[in-house]
What we know:
- By secondary structure, this protein is mainly beta.
- The protein has one domain: Elongation Factor Tu (Ef-tu), domain 3, CATH 2.40.30.
- 11% of the residues lie in helices and 40% in strands.
- The strands form 2 sheets. Strands 1, 2, 3, 6, 7, 8, 9 and 10 form an 8-stranded antiparallel beta sheet that branches. Strands 4-5 form a two-stranded antiparallel ribbon.
- Strand 1 and strand 2 form a beta hairpin.
- The two termini are 20 Å apart.
Amino acid sequence: MSSVKTYDPRLLQIALGNHVVSGAADGDFLTIEPHGDGVDKQVGAYGEVVRSIDPDETVTITIGLQYSAETLKYCGDMYDRDRATHGEGMFPILIKDLKGTTVCSAGEAWVTNKPDQTYGKTASDREIVIETGPASYHL
Length: 139
């Protein structure tokens, strides 16, 4: 077995419902942030240790996109649908590194807001923030 590993960002697939994310920004374009405290511990006066497992399995996913990415339209449409229908703009999400072991998925996810709009001499990137219900996240 080879000790050399290869990362290829083109093999990091992100699916929002039936939409495959395209137009990823240059540089860091994906952040997966787990919520909750994970596994916490308390130590009593006599040294006994008690662990607490936080039940919060939700994650925040931030996707950096190029100015003209089709994914911006998809996310904007889902956000508008969610607001107009009082909750029908949710979608499943799947993130998979086809060369590695990272997998993140949730049956329910939603766009939190439309991205900030910045304009200048050159096109600037946009960030979409997605929250999930309970998620499965493996490194």
